[in-house]
Amino acid sequence: MGKYSGRKISDVPWEELHVGMKVVSARGTPGEITRLRSFPEDSYDSIDFKWENGNESFGMFHI
């Protein structure tokens, strides 16, 4: 992917997130949002990612 221009995920408000958005993890790994889910009855939101290194993360909390 070369130089990565995504924003750090913790700096992006939930309302601005969208599937396909390029982001950077707290540890500096670049990736892309693949799924957003909101669970208002449980008071949390979760995000699935596909990272540049080939790994995937599922159900990560947005803080």
Q: Which key features would you list for this structure?
A:
63 residues, mainly beta, 5-stranded mixed beta sheet, 0% helix
Give a written overview of the molecule:
The structure is a single chain. This protein has 63 residues and is an all-beta fold. It is 0% helix and 46% strand. It has a 5-stranded mixed beta sheet, with no helix packed on it. It is globular and about 35 Å long.
What is shown here, in short?
The chain is mainly β and 63 residues long.
Strand fraction: over 45%
- Give the helices and strands as they follow along the chain: EEEEE
Quickly give the structural class: mainly beta
Q: Which parts are unreliable, with pLDDT below 50 for 5 consecutive residues or more?
A: none
Rg, nearest Å: 11 Å
Intertermini distance: 27 Å
**How many helical stretches?**
0
| Share of helical residues | under 10%
How does the SSE layout of this entry go?
Layout: E1 7-8, E2 22-24, E3 30-39, E4 44-51, E5 56-61
Parallel strand pairs: 1-2
Antiparallel strand pairs: 2-3, 3-4, 4-5
